[in-house]
Amino acid sequence: SHDAGSFQEAGVIQHAYNLNFPLHVVPGNSAQCRAWSAFSVSSPAVVLETVKQAGARTEGPDAMVIRLYEAYGSTVTAWLQTSLPVKEAMLCDLLERPAAQGHLPMGLQGLRLSFTPFCVLSVLLVLSQ
């Protein structure tokens, strides 16, 4: 048998992202810098695909949109944690309009996101100034 595990276990999606979206290195003073990650997701099935500044909106310049998707074809609950000072978080559509009943409470584990197979979620984050 050639069953060496699934593509999920092999980390194919993460490797593909690393290949297609390599990290860009910017020079900096390493003495002042410690390891830092703005976002982490609790499930390997969920890929954080996009982080961008929100378009011109009433929330002002301190708003950003992050887009995540479920890549394994599973139904999963994932926790999104961020080191950014989030004042408010809500689900939004692809045009960055907040969804009705889309408010996400920020718990100790982060933002709780529920995914159906291959579902894409967009989250609007309003940051404290």
Write up what this structure looks like.
This protein is mainly β and 129 residues long. The chain has a single domain, classed as Immunoglobulin-like (Sandwich), CATH 2.60.40. Helices cover 7% and strands 43% of the residues. The chain has one helix at 12-20, and strands at residues 39-41, 46-53, 63-70, 76-82, 86-92, 98-103, 106-107, 110-115, 120-127. Strands 2-3-9-5-6 form a 5-stranded antiparallel sheet, with no helix packed on it. It has a 4-stranded antiparallel sheet with strand order 1-4-8-7, with no helix packed on it. The longest helix has 9 residues, at 12-20. The chain starts with 11 loop residues before the first helix and ends with a strand. This is MA2C1 mannosidase. Residues 45-117 form the Glycosyl hydrolases family 38 C-terminal domain.
Order of helices and strands, N to C?
HEEEEEEEEE
What is the C-alpha radius of gyration, as a whole number of Å? 17 Å
Q: Residue share in helices?
A: under 10%
Average the pLDDT over all residues and give the rounded result.
82
Note poorly predicted spans.
Answer: none
Main beta sheet: 5 strands, antiparallel
Number of strands: 9
User: What order do the strands of the largest sheet run in, or round the barrel if closed?
Assistant: 2-3-9-5-6
Task: Report how far the terminal alpha carbons are from each other.
Answer: 57 Å
The computed structural class is: mainly beta
At the first level of CATH, what is the class?
Mainly Beta
| Tally of distinct domains | 1
Q: Which architecture per CATH? A: Sandwich
- H/I helix tally: 1
Domain Glycosyl hydrolases family 38 C-terminal: 45-117
InterPro entries: Gal_mutarotase_sf_dom, GH38_C
Pfam families: Glyco_hydro38C2 (PF17677)
Organism: Serilophus lunatus
